[in-house]
Amino acid sequence: MPNTYLKIDHVSKTFPTPTGEFCALDNVDLAINQGEYISIIGHSGCGKSTVLNVVAGLLDPSEGGVILENREISGPGPDRAVVFQHHSLMPWLSVYENVALAVRRVFKGKKSKAEMHDWIVHNLTLVHMDHAMEKLPSEISGGMKQRVGIARALAMQPKVLLMDEPFGALDALTRSHMQESLMEIQTELNNTIIMITHDVDEAVLLSDKIIMMTNGPSATIGEVLEIDLPRPRNRVRLADNPTYNHYRQQVLSFLYERQRNPLDTKAKTEVSAETETPVETEKSVENRTPETAVTKSEPEKGDPQPPQDQPALKIVDRSGQAA
Questions:
Q1: For residues 177 and 167, is the Cβ–Cβ distance under 8 A?
Q2: pTM of this prediction?
Q3: Percent of the chain with pLDDT over 90
């Protein structure tokens, strides 16, 4: 068995609130090997982004720690690059200069100008954006912007690539193209990748392991599913693959049977409370006051005639006289 490359070691995270401490994560423990593609999936509020931010060094754990290549993480660093859902490109810089910004920051004094130029072009070529190096972000599509964001992250030569729903804002077709590109890059570079996703098919297609989180607060790892599908993976062929569909069903079962969406549960409870009608018993009818007692009767002369399919209603007092 390969040595653990990245260890999330019994991490818990609490946040102060006006009503006391809020526990977002509780005892998250995970070992990741070099070159593995890990997806973290779960309902909103299950701590997925908190896990990612702790690994990135953007948040300090309240308990436990993160160890990368036998060194504990203590803050952000170029060995962990983050790709967010939104590209965060500098709008006044060209595609080339957006990537160059990261390269100069990391490799200044380590690479010559010519070497840095070649490295920038190499990473833009990896994501198929070398043809648009001189364009501004406003001149390219959303999918192309996200490609540039990935190129910028890869150009830092990170030990771990952290991706927070990187394709969530893209249309379905563009997202599929981006997934294909990412699989090609991961095969070529053997990156260690941790990705947050809400997309079950994306998780099964891309991952070596899927980390399924329990609902928060005090979220933790509910189940780890190892995906044993050969690479390279072809989404069209996998559509009818029984093993692929078995993995997909396991994730769906965890999310929608064992860990129901807390927002859905809350909404159903609220709707039920608003629409619930008390069932009257014989005793409750006897105890009604004259103001609330209602009986069915035929309409009297001069009264407005109700529709034929609706009986007339008349309020009576306890003596049976019309009120």
A1: no
A2: 0.78
A3: 64
